[in-house]
Amino acid sequence: MTYDLLIRNGRIVDGSGMPAFRGDLAVKDGMIVEIGKINSDAARTVDADGLAVSPGFIDNHCHYDAQVLWDPLCTFSCHHGATTVIIGNCSLALAPVKEQERAELAGMLSYVEAIPMDVLQAGVPWNWETFPDYMRAIGQRLGVNVGTLVGHSAVRLYAMGKDASQRDATDDELATMRRLVREALDAGALGLSITRNMNHFDIAGKRIPAACAPESELFALVDVLREAGTGVIQCGGGTNPELKDGLLSRLSQACGRPVMYNTLLEQARQPGRWKTHLSHVEETVRQGIRAIPLCNPGSVVNKFTMRNCQVFRSMPTWLPILQGPDDDKLRAYRDPATRAKLRAEVEAPLTPDSTFSKRWDLMIVDEPKLAKNRGLRGQHIAEIAKAQGKEPVDAFLDLAVEEGLDTVFSLGEINMDTEAVAQILSSPYAVVGLSDGGAHVQFHSNVSNPTRLLGYWVREKKIMSLELAVRRLTFDSATAFGIYDRGLLQPGMAADLVVFDPDTVRPVAEDVVHDFPSDGWRMRELAEGIHYTVVNGEVLMEKGTHTGNYPGRVLHNARRQGL
Question: What is the pLDDT of residues 325-338, one digit of tens each?
Fold first, then answer.
């Protein structure tokens, strides 16, 4: 037999967690057909001597719902070895949608996930109404595979219109929502996404619809997955309700489907809470309940100016100011009465829904605008405030106002404690992921989960074996999200592959690129050590460069695949 692709002499890390071995791998018609010592010819042969060959990585929590329409590679996940991305998370999706509600639906994605509205207006063609229509639209040309979740906020807006964030649904409206979820599942959606994040607002300052739904509505919608016998439930902001009264465990028990939720992490806002959370998850697993958190191998450092900031959005006086015009921001920040309210809200006791830790020592002046302030570069607000004899919030806002809102700040509050993160990543009771690819595009690019895990945590910190790390990036996510034909290197599995150098793989420093519609800019994060990325048997990326191939496809749930 002449194969389409033959990878020779590689270190086969098959995704199972079993020890790697030296061998060849052959591909025909998009499938893995043979692994071992292979003597046949191939249309293309890749010499992987000294390199690892693994299943393609699965980026299991993304927001490329709009970007995929103008960027079918879903950059920059593909640069880090991702062959599959999962979109529609946190109740946010771009379908179903009625023509008159397109702007409102886009406004939810824009503000919650920090994607500029002018970019969405320029880049989204809106040539669909139903969820199956949307799946067909994105499937026209894909570089990577895309799995979709139908979003509760989109479904609720479609069923209830202007009242979607105002009240409970009527019986008829709930029946419509159930029909829309079933329609998406029948078309192949991987599942349903919901949210309990009460700090998720749309661009007009309204709480998004899914966050306004009563628990009874959640149980009614997840029951559709029980009836269909397929699908996963994804929940944004799931930690608080799970720790409070086991909401996600109860949902999983009620419908018999797995629930994946955000997120098991170490954070300055709630020091030590990750230990309580991990103990809770361990007990849940012992009871046979499938309510599993995602965890992230990266520290999250936001870079922002006060023209575009989400740090304080959980605070009622701050939120409308943050969403207003820049001139209004400046007037508000200068006004003594408003300043007093802002100060009081920052200094109030932290709650589980707080979006700022009050750790001013973590708020760094990254790029001062004025020459007279250049000496502040690299200093944190706490030390600046002390030197100036001011309260930290006043020192912060005074600097922002003086520089016309152009000061660049950075804030790192999440996963900064490496010992805590090491324990979280090593737990079998969480699934590695949550890159948020496609979101927060002007604050950070956090798509480097695979290269950070393999480079920093495996090679440098040695917290787990290469084989286990690959499993965490492949088979674990494939199984959790019901993608049963990927995530392992075995004959008969889809040929999604990554060829990488374990000795050099790593993310590189972020920079800025202007490559979005409407001349929009975003943060870019590329990688080193990823030699080949193969999707459905075709080479998509070769040493960081797109080959011109578009072999991706829209992935379907197990029930739809079996039809």
Answer: 999 999 999 999 99
Predicted pLDDT of residue 563: 53
Could you tell me the pTM of the whole model? 0.94
pLDDT tens digits for 386-407?
999 999 999 999 999 999 999 9
In terms of DSSP bridges, do strands 21-28 and 31-36 run parallel, antiparallel, or are they unpaired? antiparallel
Query: What confidence tier does 300 reach under pLDDT thresholds 50, 70, 90?
Result: confident
pLDDT of 438 > 60? The answer is yes
Phi, psi of 499 (to 5 degrees): -110, 115
Degrees to nearest 5, angle at CA 220 with 214 and 224: 145
Contacts of 321 (CB under 8 A, 6+ apart): 328, 329, 332, 333, 338, 342
Residue length, the chain? 563
Q: Judge whether residue 35 has pLDDT over 80.
A: yes
> Cα 480 to the chain's mean position, in Å?
15
Q: What was the pLDDT predicted at 1?
A: 85
User: Which residue type is seen at 33?
Assistant: V
Q: Which two tokens stand for residue 261?
A: 């939720």
**Torsion 412-413-414-420 (CA) sign:** positive
Two structure tokens written together for 308:
């575009």
Model pLDDT, residue 352 = 86
The angle formed by the CA atoms of residues 20, 26 and 32, to the nearest 5 degrees, is 80
Mean pLDDT of 469-487: 98
CB of 83 closer than 8 Å to CB of 537 = no
3-state class (DSSP) for residue 560 = helix
> Which H, E and C letters describe 375-415, residue by residue?
HHCCCEHHHHHHHHCCCHHHHHHHHHHHCCCCCEEEEEEEC
Task: Tell me if 311 sits within 8 A of 356, measured CB to CB.
Answer: yes
Count of other CB atoms within 10 angstroms of residue 21: 12
- Hey, what are 466's tokens? 């290469």
Residue 252 neighbours by CB distance under 10 Å: 24
Predicted pLDDT at 458: 98
Question: Do residues 561 and 552 touch, judged by C-beta distance below 8 A?
Answer: no
Q: What is the pLDDT of residues 89-119, one digit of tens each?
A: 999 999 999 999 999 999 999 999 999 999 9
Dihedral of alpha carbons 24, 27, 32, 34, sign:
negative
Q: Return the closest-CA partner of residue 240 out of 351, 358, 349.
A: 351
Angle at CA 522, nearest 5°, toward 357 and 57? 85
Closest CA to 13 of 52, 40, 45: 52
Asked if 247 and 222 touch (Cβ cutoff 8 Å), the reply is no
CA pair distance 439, 420, nearest whole angstrom: 25
What average pLDDT does range 310-315 have in this prediction? Answer: 93
